[in-house]
Structures are given as C-alpha cells and as structure tokens.
C-alpha cells in the first residue's frame, strides 16, 4: 500500500494536477462534478490508508491530506475528519503525528462532538492536578484520560480524592477500562480514609447504574462495607447488569426485606442465619456487613425456639472466634453464657468463651454461675465428656485472669499422664498460687518433680516454677541433657530436646534447628527463653512438621519480640500468623505510600500471599522488588503468579520494578510452555512481542494450540511463527489473533505458509488477501482461454497436483526413506515423509535420481510431483518459507509444456520469480542438463548465484555466474563447468562467440555507465507527451492545442496570462496533412 500512496502523494503535489483533470475533454469542462469526483476518489484512497495499523502508511496518508489542503484548498470530507479525530486518541498516534493531524483539523469544519474530542485530545496541562481540573470541565473523558487518572490513583495519593471526583462528574462511566476499575477496587480495599471509601462506593454505584459490569472481587469488597456506604443498594444496581450467584441474590433480597429497626420475625431470622452459614462455608469467615446486620436486629430469646436459638449462638461463637474484639458485645456474651448455663454446649461455644475469658478477665454478668456449671460437668461422666478438656482450659484461663477458689478440677489433673492436660492444670494452679491460694496437690507435684530431678542430676535443685511448668509440658525427658549444665539452662535444653523428639528430626535437621535457634539467642538476647517456651506450648497443643517449626524459628529471628510475643501467646494458628506478620513488615518496608494504606489491607494481602505461595516464594517475590509504588499492579502480579503456579526458580531478578518483574515472569511462564528450543532466542522474541502489545494471554493461547499438535518439530516451527509475527509487526488485534489461532490448528508443516499469508494481509492492505489455488487456476484459465496447449491441464487436475506436492504425508517412491525407530523395542520401520526430510535425505535422493536418470521417465506425473515436493522441502530448509501456490502452479505449467514448444510466463512482481527459476533449474539439472539463467544485469546474476549456492548444493549441484572478474585470455571459462550458470544476455552471447571461434576477438556492446541517470529526462518527456492530450480540444470539428491556463467565466473560455506570455492556441491540421504553418488565435 505504501508504494501506491507514494504515487498518489507525488501526483497531487503537482500544483496543476487537478486543473488538468478539470480541463480534460473540454466538452465536459462546464460540469464541475467531474473535478470533485477526482478529489473525492483521492480522499477515499487516503482515508483507506488512515484506517490501517501501519504507522508509516498513516503518516503518508496524513501528508497527502496536508497537500490537498495546502496546495489545492480542498475541504476534508466528514468521514475523513471523523477518522482523524479518532486517530488522535489511538495508541498508534505519536506526538509528531498528532501535530500533523492538528494542522489538518484546524483548517477543517468540526461538528460539536468532534470538537469535544479534539479539545480533549490536545488538552494542555503542567501537572496532574491541573489535568484533573481541566478534565472536570468536560462531560465525557477519553480512554487516554481514564488511563491517566488510573496512574494518578495508583501513584499520587494526595490527588486520589480529586481523581475520584473527576470520574464521578464524567457521563461516560460505562467506558471506564478494566484496569482503572481494578485500581478503584484496590483503593477501596486498601485505604484507611473513610472519605475515599465513600467516594469509591459512590463511583461504583454510578458505574453500575451506567450499565458497566464489575468483577466478583468488587462485589466482595462492597459486601464488607458498613451500612453508611449503602452496599445493598449498590449490589442491587449490579444485579441489573450481570449474572451473579444465587447465594448473593438471596443475600441481597434478604437484606433488602429486613427492617433492622424493628423486631425480626423468626422465619426471616432463620433465613438470615442460613445465609450467614452458607457465607461461612464458602469463605470461612463472615462479612462485616452480615455481622453488622445481625447485631442490628432486635432479637429476644425466650427459649421456645431451641433450634433457632442454638443456630444463633453457634454463629455468635464463630463471630467471636473470627474476631475476639466482639467479646465486648454484651448481647453476644450473654447468649453464650446462657447456652453454657443450659448445658447446650459444643466445642465452638467453648472456644469462643475462651476468648471472652482472655478479653474480659472474667468480668461478665454470669461468670460465677458458668464456672459452677463447668465444675458440675467435669464431676460427671455424661454425654459432655468430649468437651471436658476445653472446660479444663477455660478454668485454667480463668485462674490466670482472676482469683478463683474452686481448684479441684485442676488439682485432679496435675498428675495426669497427658502432658497437655497436665500443663494446663499446672498453669491454672500456678496462677492461683501467685494470687495467694495454696494447693496441697500442687505442692506435692512440685516436690515430686524436684526429688526426681535431684535423683538424676548431680547438683541440688532450686525451687523454680518456670522449670516445673516446663517439665509439666514435656512428653520426652532426658536428664542426661542437663547433667553438665547449670540450672538456668535446663529449661532451654529440656524444651529443645522435647521439640526435636516430637517432630522426629533427622541429624541434618537437628543441626539446622540448633543453628537457627542460636541465631535467635544471639539477636533476641534475654527474650529467647520466653519465645522457646511459647513455641513449645504451641507445638504441644497443635502439632507441627519440621518445616513449619524451622520456618517459624527463622521468622522469630527477623521480627521484634514485641510483635512475636502476643502472636505466640494468643494466636490460634501462630505459624500462619507469624508468617503473615513477617510479610506485613516487609510490605510496609517496600510500600512507598504507607500512610494512606490501611493495616488491615496489608495484613490481608500478606495472608493471601502466605496461603497462595507459602513463605519462601512470597519472600523471594519481595526480594525481587525494590519497592511497591503501585498496589494494584502488585496485586495483579500476585494473582498472575498464582494462576500460573509460580515456582522459586521462576523468580530470577532482584530489586526490580513491578513491570520488570511482571515481564520476567511472563517470559518465564511462556518459555516453559515450549521445550527443546533456544531459550535465549525464545525469550528475546517473547519480550519483543510483549513490547508490541501482544498480551500474555494471547501468546499463552498460541502455545496451548502448539502443544496440541502431534508434530515432533512443533517447537522448531513455533519459533519461526513467532519470528514472522515479530518481523512483520503483525498488530495484535482480534482479527489477527483469530487468524493465527486458526492457522496453528492446522498441521505444523503448514504453519509458516499460513502465518506468512496473514503477514501479507496485515501489512500490505486490509483488502488484499492471498488467493487460493483454485482462484489462481481459474484466473490462469480465464486469461489463457485462447491457448489450446493448456486444455489438457484442467482445473481439477492442477488442484490435485498442487495438493499432492503440498501434502505433509507424501512418501518418496524413488528413495527408500525408512529408518529404525530407536524408541521402538521391536525395531519396526517408520516411514519418513518428504516434509520431514533433512539435507542428507535430499542429497541422497538427488544422487539416486542422477544415477538412473536415463531409465527414469522424468515427464511422468508421479516424478514431477515428487521432484517438486522434494525441491519445496529444500527451499523450506534454506529459506524457512514454503513454495506458494502461485510458484508451484508456475512450475507445473512450465514442466507440462509440449516437447516442441516452450512456455512464456508472466509472473507478477513479488510472486517469487527467482524462486521459480531456481526450482526449474534444479529439476532440469538433475536430468544432466546444463542450465543457463539469464538475468537483467551482471549484479543480479552474481547476487542470485551466491544466494542460491547452498540451495543447489543440497542436490549435489554447483552454480556460478559468468561475469568477467579477471581479463579473459582463452578457452572455456571456469563457470561453464558448473551445472547452473547465472548471467546477463550480453555476457552469454560473448561467451558463445569466443567459444565457437577463439581465434577472433568478440565483444558485444554493454550498458554505458550512468545511463540510468537519464531516466529522469525520459520521465519528464513522457509526462509532457501524456499531458498533451489534456490540452487538445475539438471545436466545430477542428483540433486545437492550447497553451496556458484555461478559465471558465460566464460561459466564455479564456486563456490566462502565464509566465509573461499570452495564452495561445495552435490549430492542428488533420492527419496526415500537417503544415509547417501554425495559425495563432488569441482568446480574450
């Protein structure tokens, strides 16, 4: 297309071109319509070029429009203006292109909508704040402005509110891109500003009202907002635009029907509790909205609805376990205590009450009564025996929180063989002892332990409650570990030994464990024994693997004691909580905008990473980043890594930016999809394609299709496919993506041909397409309908021949092409198709053909098909391109010529004449014939000979050129010994003359140097001759040649004064009676 544009632009740059067209055939000059049609056609051609994806073509088209306006004062058509305006908003339009378009639009008439877009496209501003101020004045925003606002939201916290307000003012919220919507979601989740949360919710409501669909993540975020943000109203709007889960629909309907200001009826409460239970089963937690709604109800428990009340109390228990801060809610605590007093107890209720004891220090309305019930239950062996341990823990925790006198339960269990029960009993009794309550059983147990230790150690044992508490929690005791140690180290040695035995470590793991703990003792100083005690307590109560324990110790070495202590003391899952807290610290270190980000969001993000990747991968992801300046992009990386099952080895950069890390992961994940190729080359191609706006998802889909192929060489073919897409800059629009996907679903051997077709269509015209073989044959027949020699080559026959030659499963009948399959145990022979041949196969085939060429029928259809198929494969090996249908058809026409006649083919530019000639040269040279290829110049001859040398060599053929590089003396030239010789016509003639009679000197005339410089003069002469026809008019049967500029005024034709000479007219005598006398006629 570009060359056609160049012609159009060069023509219209001539100032009088359009005037010539207006004067063509004077009898039509009075109709001005003709001239306008010419202009319209030029605009249509240039407009067509504007709609392509090729920047160079677009630039040329814009240049053409500038010429029309500046030289010919042409008004641009509305359709042209529309496309130019839309171009200013496109990513393909760079700054210089925008300036040129601005020049065009400033001289054109724009409608209101076009003016609005134009002003937005050329908005001037000096800062982000000024940009937002300017955008607020416009009713609609362009995609580029949504992207700019996205950057402001992600990177400029002080302007976040203003950016959201600007979005609220725009009327085309439905056009907000997905990326900006994701950024709004991350902002809503991460901000600690109530104002920004309110703006985000208002904006999401407006977006939903505009008909825009949102993600499930946004729906989840809306659910956790408080009622001031009106989450249910927003969710109702969302339901109108998209399909949502039945559970969510039920929740929305339920919440809408409930009036929280009145007593809720039992039926509605039952539905609501069922909805909350479903919510918990799905996400393992309750939403903030559900909890708030439940607590807003006026609920009265009268004991008549036992099942309903038990459901309510179970949910209250789960709420407390999820968030112990609700221990301050008196209604929830009263409900729990009421359940305990009625002995309708389960494990959930007791676990929740443990949190109440720790938070309230037993300062509840009914604690004393609850304690009595606990003791009563423990003194009886009934159906509640399975919760005895949890009740014991509650009593021990209560003893640690306040002074209680009822210690019989703890005393009864201090001598228990189970170290967990024994440990909790000791903790409760020790707390009572510290508050002045003496227990004989407790004293006896301590004395017995002291005696046992004195028996097993050589030193006197001091009375030490910390040591006794340690021993109460031990499952494995080895006094040999402390015999030679001072008593202040006994706790450490006993706890470490018990941990090692519980976890069953190998010798190597024991060494790692000790080494890690020594690091803690060095860094945590006096707090290491406290951490060891709490770590042991957690492992004792919950169990752990070596990896979990070792990972936790490494974390304890990296975070402050003040952070680790409360987690080990209170957390239900200390290992996860410690890892989450450690990642939280790292996130805060990397995060540039700490002040505007809520701690809850950071902890949630850390927990998500721990649950998705574990600690090692999470930590390595953070090590790969220098900082986190964009939370939305970072969350995108986290989700991206999870979807693609990231491994430690996938992360190989350090202190990079988020985009660089994302790009390296994309290349690594894509590279892993294709095996057995040059990783560096593949990585380079992928990086360049991603730069050209091909998305990870598109390339991933391509590789999925590639891997479905059964071809062994699919990896090698796929790299060539990427190379073509990259080299020809195939734009990643949906049309091209669909075409490539379809092409890759065909046989791997046809990929390159199909992708080349797509490249041609994408680069040269959006209207041009490669013709099918049937279309080519039909065109051949229509243009040669008079040629009787082609009658024997019917359409179906030619189609059949072409398909055979292109077939990927064609087998040679000449060469015994079988090999042993080494992977086959039975050593069965496996056929190798011609399309799978290597250079060695081709050389072997050529030698076989040349050996028995005398006995072979080289004119047979089978031989021609096989020969062309082999040559086609050789061409592919050498060039990585298959022969096109046009090239194969050309060869078939030549090879099916009559014996007494030749063939003269007219092959269009770009169809590959050099390739066709080389194919035919091989075909005839294999028959032992000498092949002379005549070129238009010696330069071309030399170039072709060098480029095709390797191609001919595959067939054991030699080629050369006959240019005289040295002074000729005598005898045949060296090049004549080769089977294929390239040269210009004059050189072949000279070689023939001197070979036939070497006694004479012969030299034909050759081209004179620099003759090509006269082409400009030839062109000007030809142009002048062509222009003469526009100056000849017929009046009253006579012909006149007009010189000057014709002007039409009031039905009168006049010749204007031109370059100092009056216009004049030459009367032309009828041919052949021209006279030397000219008649000059002056026209006013």
Can you offer a commentary on this structure?
One of its GO terms (molecular function) is ATP binding. Residues 758-1084 form the SecA family profile domain. This is SecA family profile domain-containing protein. This protein has 1084 residues and is mainly alpha-helical. It folds into eight domains: 1-121, no CATH class; 141-255; 285-438, Leucine-rich Repeat Variant; 474-570, no CATH class; 588-672, no CATH class; 673-764, no CATH class; 805-818 and 836-995, 3-Layer(aba) Sandwich (Rossmann fold); 1031-1082, no CATH class. Helices cover 59% and strands 4% of the residues. The chain contains 51 helices and eleven strands. Strands 6-7-10-11 form a four-stranded antiparallel sheet. A hairpin with an 8-residue loop joins strand 1 and strand 2 (829-831). Helix 38 packs parallel to helix 40 (734-744). The longest helix is centred in the C-terminal third of the chain and has 19 residues, at 861-879. It is elongated. The chain starts with a helix and ends with a strand. Residues 20-35, 819-826, 1057-1061 and 1071-1084 have low confidence and may be disordered.
What's a quick, concise take on this entry?
The protein is mostly helical. The chain is built from 51 helices and 11 strands.
Beta-strand portion reads under 5%
Task: Look up the CATH topology of the largest domain.
Answer: Rossmann fold
Q: How many separate helices?
A: 51
Q: Can you tell me the number of structural domains?
A: 8
General shape: elongated
Q: What is the CATH architecture assignment of the largest domain?
A: 3-Layer(aba) Sandwich
Q: CATH superfamily of the largest domain, called what?
A: P-loop containing nucleotide triphosphate hydrolases
Radius of gyration from CA coordinates:
45 Å
Broad structural category: mainly alpha
Mean pLDDT: 83
Care to count the β-strands? 11
Looking across the biggest beta sheet, what order are the strands in?
A: 6-7-10-11
Low-confidence stretches: 20-35, 819-826, 1057-1061, 1071-1084
Largest sheet: 4 strands, antiparallel
Head-to-tail CA distance between termini: 46 Å
Percent in helix: 55-70%
CATH secondary-structure class of the largest domain: Alpha Beta
């Amino acid at each position: 297309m570009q060359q056609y544009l160049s012609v159009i632009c060069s023509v219209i740059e001539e100032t009088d071109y359009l005037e010539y067209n207006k004067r063509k055939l004077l009898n039509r000059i009075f109709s001005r319509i003709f001239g306008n049609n010419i202009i319209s056609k030029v605009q249509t051609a240039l407009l067509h070029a504007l709609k392509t994806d090729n920047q160079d073509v677009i630039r040329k088209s814009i240049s053409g429009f500038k010429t029309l306006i500046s030289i010919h004062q042409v008004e641009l058509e509305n359709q042209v203006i529309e496309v130019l305006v839309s171009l200013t908003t496109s990513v393909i339009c760079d700054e210089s292109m925008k300036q040129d378009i601005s020049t065009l639009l400033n001289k054109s008439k724009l409608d209101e909508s076009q003016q609005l877009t134009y002003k937005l496209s050329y908005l001037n501003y000096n800062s982000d704040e000024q940009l937002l101020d300017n955008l607020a004045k416009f009713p609609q925003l362009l995609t580029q402005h949504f992207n700019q606002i996205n950057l402001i939201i992600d990177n400029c916290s002080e302007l976040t509110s203003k950016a959201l307000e600007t979005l609220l003012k725009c009327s085309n919220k439905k056009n907000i891109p997905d990326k900006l919507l994701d950024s709004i979601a991350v902002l809503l989740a991460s901000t600690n500003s109530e104002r920004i949360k309110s703006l985000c919710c208002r904006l999401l409501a407006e977006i939903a009202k505009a008909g825009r669909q949102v993600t499930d993540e946004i729906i989840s975020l809306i659910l956790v907002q408080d009622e001031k943000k009106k989450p249910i109203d927003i969710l109702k709007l969302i339901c109108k635009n998209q399909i949502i889960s039945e559970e969510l629909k039920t929740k929305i309907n339920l919440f809408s029907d409930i009036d929280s200001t009145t007593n809720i009826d039992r039926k509605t409460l039952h539905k609501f509790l069922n909805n909350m239970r479903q919510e918990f089963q799905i996400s393992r937690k309750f939403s903030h909205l559900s909890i708030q709604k439940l607590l807003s109800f006026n609920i009265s428990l009268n004991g008549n609805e036992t099942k309903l009340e038990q459901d309510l109390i179970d949910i209250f228990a789960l709420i407390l376990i999820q968030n112990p801060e609700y221990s301050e809610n008196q209604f929830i605590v009263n409900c729990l205590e009421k359940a305990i007093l009625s002995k309708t107890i389960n494990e959930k209720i007791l676990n929740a009450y443990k949190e109440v004891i720790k938070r309230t220090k037993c300062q509840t309305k009914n604690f004393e009564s609850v304690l009595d019930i606990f003791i009563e239950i423990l003194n009886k062996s009934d159906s509640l025996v399975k919760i005895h341990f949890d009740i014991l823990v509650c009593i021990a925790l209560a003893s640690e929180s306040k002074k209680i006198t009822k210690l019989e339960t703890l005393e009864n269990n201090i001598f228990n063989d189970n170290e967990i029960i024994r440990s909790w009993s000791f903790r409760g009794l020790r707390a009572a002892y510290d508050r002045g309550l003496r227990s004989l059983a407790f004293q006896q147990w301590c004395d017995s332990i002291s005696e046992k230790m004195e028996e097993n150690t050589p030193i006197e044992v001091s009375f030490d409650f910390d040591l006794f508490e340690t021993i109460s929690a031990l499952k494995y005791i080895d006094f040999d570990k402390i015999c030679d140690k001072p008593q202040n180290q006994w706790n450490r040695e006993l706890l470490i030994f018990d941990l090692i035995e519980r976890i069953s470590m190998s010798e190597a793991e024991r060494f790692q464990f000790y080494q890690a703990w020594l690091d803690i003792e060095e860094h945590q100083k006096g707090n290491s024994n406290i951490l060891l005690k709490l770590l042991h307590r957690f492992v004792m109560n919950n169990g752990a693997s070596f990896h979990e324990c070792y990972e936790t110790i490494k974390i304890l070495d990296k975070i402050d004691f003040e952070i680790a202590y409360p987690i080990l003391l209170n957390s239900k899952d200390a290992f996860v909580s410690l890892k989450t807290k450690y990642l939280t610290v790292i996130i805060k270190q990397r995060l540039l905008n700490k002040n505007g980000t809520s701690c809850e969001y950071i902890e949630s993000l850390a927990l998500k990473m721990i649950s998705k990747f574990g600690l090692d991968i999470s930590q390595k992801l953070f090590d790969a980043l220098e900082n986190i300046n964009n939370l939305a992009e970072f969350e995108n990386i986290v989700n991206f890594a999870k979807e693609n099952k990231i491994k430690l080895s996938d992360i190989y950069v350090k202190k990079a930016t988020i985009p660089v890390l994302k790009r390296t992961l994309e290349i690594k994940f894509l590279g892993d999809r294709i095996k057995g190729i040059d990783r560096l080359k593949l990585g380079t191609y992928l990086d360049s394609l991603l730069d050209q706006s091909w998305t990870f998802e598109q390339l991933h889909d391509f590789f999925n299709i590639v891997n479905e192929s059964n071809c062994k060489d699919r990896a090698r073919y796929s790299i060539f496919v990427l190379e073509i897409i990259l080299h020809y800059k195939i734009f990643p629009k949906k049309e091209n993506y669909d075409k490539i996907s379809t092409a890759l679903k065909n046989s791997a051997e046809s990929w390159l041909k199909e992708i080349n077709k797509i490249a041609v269509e994408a680069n040269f015209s959006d209207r041009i397409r490669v013709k099918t073989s049937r279309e080519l044959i039909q065109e051949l027949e229509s243009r040669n309908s008079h040629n009787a020699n082609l009658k024997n080559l019917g359409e179906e026959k030619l189609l059949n021949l072409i398909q055979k030659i292109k077939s990927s499963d064609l087998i040679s009948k000449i060469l015994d092409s079988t090999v042993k399959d080494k992977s086959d145990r039975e050593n069965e022979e496996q056929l190798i198709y011609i399309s799978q041949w290597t250079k060695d196969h081709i050389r072997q085939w050529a030698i076989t053909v040349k050996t028995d060429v005398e006995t072979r029928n080289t004119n047979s259809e089978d031989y021609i098909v096989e020969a062309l198929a082999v040559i086609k494969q050789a061409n592919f090996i050498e060039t990585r391109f298959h022969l096109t249908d046009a090239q194969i058809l050309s060869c078939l026409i030549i090879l099916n010529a009559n014996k007494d006649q030749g063939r003269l083919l007219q092959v269009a530019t770009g169809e590959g004449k050099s390739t066709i000639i080389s194919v035919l040269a091989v075909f005839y040279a294999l028959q032992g014939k000498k092949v002379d290829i005549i070129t238009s110049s010696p330069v071309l001859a030399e170039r072709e000979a060098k480029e095709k040398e390797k191609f001919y060599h595959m067939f054991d053929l030699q080629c050369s050129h006959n240019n005289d590089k040295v002074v000729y003396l005598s005898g045949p030239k060296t090049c004549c010994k080769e089977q294929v010789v390239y040269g210009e016509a004059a050189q072949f003639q000279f070689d023939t003359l001197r070979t036939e009679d070497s006694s004479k000197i012969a030299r034909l005339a050759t081209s004179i140097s620099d003759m090509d410089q006269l082409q400009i003069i030839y062109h000007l002469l030809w142009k002048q001759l062509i222009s003469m026809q526009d100056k000849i008019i017929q009046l009253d049967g006579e012909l006149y040649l007009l010189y000057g500029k014709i002007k039409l005024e009031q039905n009168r034709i006049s010749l204007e004064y031109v370059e100092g000479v009056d216009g004049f007219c030459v009367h032309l005598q009828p041919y052949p009676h021209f006279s030397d006398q000219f008649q000059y006629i002056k026209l006013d």
